[in-house]
């Protein structure tokens, strides 16, 4: 009897469904091709595909008998349509369109609806996985949804976007700098010292002097490749066309990333501002290559932060990002015109206050939007001592929704952690009822009403700074964010952005000194009101006054 029981147990184990062998890990129900022929899903797992079926309730898809697989299997509605968008063919197609793509077997009418549908994965008719949209994820044209660790990813993927993961490197050294004081000095030096290659990813490039430095590098047989946004806000200026024409003549390879009438670009904007020199140096900036962003030495310009990171690991990481961006379907060689290189332009002379500063053995974590921009709110959530945020602007989300990053900042202040928020009071403060001055007033109102340890102010144009264009963050006097990421909805979610997080107290001290100067240095700023920031100078003055009163009283008694 015991032998029979043992045999039954063994038999049950060998024929029981291996329901964990396969899962649907990615799906795109609303593609770009006409008729959604490029819609697809990915089945991930290993082993025989016999007995596995995918159904949407109106039709079902299965595989030819004896089929086995390992890893990810892409099943598209039409292989030819999928290829027209992705540049590669799927592993299987449901409707036969190309002889080199194996056909999946289907019954009924299997077509995933764009806005609302449900999918069930079955093994020998037993459900293994079920999901639906919009319940489990929010669909959209060109959106890809990924299933990881039992949940659908909150990140908004679009067709063709990269999928870089967070990594941290130890840089041998990092040279810190700021605009307007010392940015040109560092940027020009990195370009001038390049020996083999320059890879530049830039939203806008109109700086004639930096163009001349790049052209000089090309004349030294440095391989120069430039990727720029082909459709910046307001269109590409004649000054930028002049720079690109000049660099093309100098031998640089120049490409634009842009949408067409038939196919949107992978990213809403290429808004990154970085440069890779050779195999070891990466420049990360909040500023574009413009005369106001990288002012000539000793002249007024934007307030922005930057760093030259000397690390082969960081350079390789950003070079992989650059290569991924350069190989997309939305990349076009720049066609030069006749616009000339723009004339030199500079603002009024200033006194340089903050020279570059080099720190050593620094932990550096690259930030790439939209891939790893979630590291920024995580940095805010983990704050334990203080946060200083300097940003060009903060805006609400579509449909009147709150900016969730700003909400996190206020929640952090609600935990008793001092928060200071500084926004531009000139260029990015228009006549709108929901721009910077309203944001600042609202932060201070909420801080007073809800007893939150926070204060906000505007930075106005002065003799030293034309506008605040920074996108920087200092947390706990230990972490510094230098980036191109604006605090709106699209920048972290839909744009290509670039930045770094430095874990280094000396770096935090450098930028904190600059932040403190900007916070106190402008007499035209908004009053902080009832903000709870404690100013030791006020305490010292009060103590001196009290001491003088005591001395006066003692003298009277005599």
TrEMBL record:
SUPFAM superfamilies: Phospholipase D/nuclease (SSF56024). Keywords: Hydrolase, Lipid degradation, Lipid metabolism, Membrane, Transmembrane, Transmembrane helix. Residues 266-293, 464-491 form the PLD phosphodiesterase domain. The chain crosses the membrane at residues 536-554. The keyword Glycoprotein does not apply. Gene3D superfamilies: Endonuclease Chain A. It comes from the Archaea. InterPro entries: PLD-like_dom (IPR025202), PLD_domain (IPR051406), PLipase_D/transphosphatidylase (IPR001736). PANTHER family: CARDIOLIPIN HYDROLASE, MITOCHONDRIAL CARDIOLIPIN HYDROLASE. This is Phospholipase D-like domain-containing protein.
């Amino acid at each position: 009897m015991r032998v029979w029981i043992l045999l039954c147990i063994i038999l049950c184990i060998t024929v029981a469904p291996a329901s964990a062998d396969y899962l649907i890990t990615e799906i795109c129900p609303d593609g770009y091709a006409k008729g959604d022929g490029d819609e697809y899903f990915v089945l991930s797992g290993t082993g025989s595909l016999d007995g596995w079926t995918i159904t949407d309730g109106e039709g079902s898809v299965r595989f030819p008998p004896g089929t086995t697989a390992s890893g990810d299997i892409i099943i598209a509605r039409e292989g030819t349509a999928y290829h027209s968008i992705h540049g590669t063919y799927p592993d299987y197609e449901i409707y036969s369109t190309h002889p080199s793509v194996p056909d999946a077997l289907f019954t009924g009418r299997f077509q995933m609806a764009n806005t609302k549908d449900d999918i069930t994965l079955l093994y020998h008719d037993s459900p293994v996985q079920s999901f639906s949209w919009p319940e489990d994820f929010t669909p959209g044209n060109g959106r890809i949804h990924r299933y990881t660790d039992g949940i659908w990813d909150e990140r908004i993927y679009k067709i063709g976007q990269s999928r870089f993961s967070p990594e941290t490197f130890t840089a041998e050294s990092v040279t810190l700098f700021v605009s307007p004081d010392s940015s040109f000095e560092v940027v020009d030096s990195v370009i001038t010292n390049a020996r083999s290659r320059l890879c530049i990813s830039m939203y806008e490039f109109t700086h004639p002097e930096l163009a001349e430095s790049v052209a000089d590098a090309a004349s030294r047989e440095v391989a120069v490749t430039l990727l720029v946004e082909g459709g910046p806000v307001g269109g590409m200026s004649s000054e930028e066309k002049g720079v690109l024409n000049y660099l093309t003549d100098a031998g640089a390879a120049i490409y634009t990333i842009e949408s067409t009438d038939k196919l949107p670009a992978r990213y809403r904007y290429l808004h990154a501002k970085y440069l890779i020199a050779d195999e070891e140096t990466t420049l990360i900036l909040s500023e574009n290559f413009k005369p106001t962003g990288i002012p000539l030495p000793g002249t007024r310009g934007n307030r922005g932060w930057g760093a030259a990171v000397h690390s082969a690991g960081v350079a390789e990481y950003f070079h992989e990002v650059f290569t991924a961006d350069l190989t997309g379907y939305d990349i076009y060689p720049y066609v030069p015109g006749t616009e000339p290189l723009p004339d030199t332009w500079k603002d009024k002379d200033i006194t340089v206050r903050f020279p570059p500063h080099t720190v050593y053995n620094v932990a550096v974590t690259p930030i790439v939007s939209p891939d790893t921009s979630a590291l920024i709110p995580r940095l805010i959530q983990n704050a334990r001592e203080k946060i200083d945020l300097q940003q060009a602007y903060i805006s609400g989300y579509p449909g009147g929704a709150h900016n969730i990053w700003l909400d996190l900042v206020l929640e952090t202040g609600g935990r008793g952690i001092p928060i200071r928020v500084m926004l531009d009071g000139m260029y990015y403060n228009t006549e709108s009822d929901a721009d910077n001055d309203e944001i600042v007033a609202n932060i201070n109102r909420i801080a007073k009403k809800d007893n939150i340890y926070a204060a906000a102010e505007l930075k106005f144009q002065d003799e030293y700074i034309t506008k605040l264009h920074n996108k920087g963050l200092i947390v706990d006097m230990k972490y510094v964010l230098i980036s191109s990421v604006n605090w709106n909805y699209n920048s972290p979610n839909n744009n290509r952005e670039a930045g770094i997080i430095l874990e280094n107290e000396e770096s935090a001290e450098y930028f904190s000194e600059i932040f403190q100067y900007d916070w106190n240095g402008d007499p035209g700023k908004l009053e902080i009101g009832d903000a709870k920031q404690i100013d030791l100078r006020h305490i010292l003055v009060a103590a001196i006054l009290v001491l003088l009163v005591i001395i006066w009283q003692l003298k009277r008694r005599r």
